[in-house]
Amino acid sequence: MKPRRTCIACRQVEERTDLVRLVLSPEHEVVVDYYGRLPGRGAWVHCQHECIEALVRRPATVARALKHQVDVADLGAWIVRAVVRAVEDGLSLAAAGGALVGGHDALERALEEGRIAEVVVASDASERTVGGLRRVAGDDVPFVVLSATREALGTRVGKRSRAALGVLVAPASTHLLRQLHRLRNVGYVSASRSRGDG
After folding, report:
1. Residue 112, CA atoms < 13 Å, CB-side half-sphere
2. H-type helices in the chain, by residue range?
3. Does 192 reside within a domain?
4. Neighbouring-strand partners of residue 19
5. Residue 136: HSE in the Cβ half-sphere, 13 Å Cα cutoff
6. What is the pLDDT of residue 198?
7. Is residue 31 part of a domain?
8. Based on the structure, what is the number of domains in the chain?
9. H or E element, residue 45
10. Count of C-beta atoms within a 10 Å radius of residue 174
11. Crossing angle for the helix pair 49-57 and 75-96, to the nearest 10 degrees
12. Domain membership flag for residue 124
């Protein structure tokens, strides 16, 4: 049986993998222990906007769990940053496992064939490129725009510039898809796109 923990915001008991751990640093600041490996007293919270906002509104809940007064006004931003880092790591893992599709034509083909679970878009991808991919994908495939540029997105997966990457349903993409799901749940607002040449 997998370890289970209680979300301090909603009091639901879940598997550890469905929650994020908060710990108190030696400086008495809250730290997001995303992978649950840091030493010390911890508190667990769902990686969901509603639970995070409940803790921001009621910081005494976190203080009681960590046995120390804490400032959690920026908790939502801290968790979003941790999830974005996990998405970036997931992109690298999925690329190494052959679970990403890059290049406009290859991505369109994979979308037409229904092999893509989600599309990750660079912040500077052109509206024309993204619009064309959305038309092919329809309403069933989620799109998330990261703050990474095309150049950074390509570098992250060991390729040249990429405006968009399709995530295949494959064992190598399990971690990435879980993190993208978490990103949507924490209320991540996709980065704005500038008009580029795609």
Report:
1. 7
2. 49-57, 59-66, 75-96, 104-112, 127-137, 150-156, 174-185
3. no
4. 46
5. 21
6. 39
7. yes
8. 2
9. strand 42-46
10. 15
11. 150
12. yes
Distance CA 151, CA 26 (A): 38
Cβ atoms 15, 44 nearer than 8 A? no
| 197 within a domain of the structure (yes/no) | no
**What is the bridge-based pairing of β-strands 143-145 and 116-121?**
parallel
- Domain shared by 111 and 180, yes or no: yes
Residue 8: CATH number of its domain? 3.30.1230.10
**Token pair recorded at residue 32:** 């997001």
First and final C-alpha spacing in the chain: 47
pLDDT in tens, the chain (198 residues): 888 999 999 999 999 988 999 999 999 999 999 999 999 889 999 999 999 999 999 999 999 999 999 999 999 999 999 999 999 999 999 999 999 999 999 999 999 999 999 999 999 999 999 999 999 999 999 999 999 999 999 999 999 999 999 999 999 999 999 999 999 999 886 654 333 333
Distance from C-alpha of 47 to C-alpha of 185, rounded to nearest angstrom: 7
Range(s) of the domain holding residue 110: 79-185
Asked whether residue 41 falls in the same domain as residue 114, the answer is no
Q: What is the rounded (10 degree) CA torsion for 8, 12, 17, 20?
A: -20
